[in-house]
Design brief:
mainly alpha
Length: 209
Amino acid sequence: MTIFIYIVVLVFSVIVHEVAHAYVANLRGDDTAKMAGRITLNPVPHTDLFGTIILPGVLLLMNTGILFGWAKPVPINTYRLKNPKTDIPLVSAAGPLSNVLLAVVSGLGIRLIRIFPDFQAGFGASIETFLYIMVLINIVLLVINLVPVPPLDGSKVITYFLPKELAVKYMNLNPYTGFLILVVLLYSGILWRFVGPVINFFIKLIIGS
C-alpha cells in the first residue's frame, strides 16, 4: 500500500511540475503547450513511458532507496517567448518551484497535525504519513531536477549565465545521454552522496524535527 502511495504522489507531483512549465510559458507568450492540451492535471497527456512508468518501477525493484521520475516534457517554442534570454530560465524554474509549493503546503499540514496529539495518534497518523511522502517526493524532484544535466531543469536554468552560442549547444545535447548519466548516478549512489544531505536538510527545515 505504501509503494502505491509513493507512485501516486510521484505521478501527481511530476504532472504538477510539467503543468507549471506549460502555464508559465503561456504567460510569457508561448501557447504551444496550451494548444497541445498540457495545461491539465489529466495524467494521460503527460505520461512518459520511460520517465513515468519504467524508471520508477526499476528503481523500486532494484531497491535503490530513492524514487524518481518525470512526465513527458512540455513542448516549448523558445522563439515565441517574449524574452527568451530570461524567459527560458523562468519557465524552467517554474517546475521546481511548483515542487517547493507542494512540499511547503504538505509540511504545514504536518505541523498542524502535530498541534493536536490526540488526532495525530489516530486518523491523523495516516494523513501525516501521506503528507510526509508528499514532502519527500517533491524535495527529491526539486533537488535532482536542479542538477545541471540535460534535459533536467537545472541545465536550462544555467543557460541564463552562459554565452548565447554555448547555451544553445548545451541545450541541444542528446537528452537520452543525460538520462543515461542520471540513471547511472542514481543506481551507483554517487549522486545521492551529494544530494542526500541537501534533501534531508530541506525535509527537516519544512517539517521540523
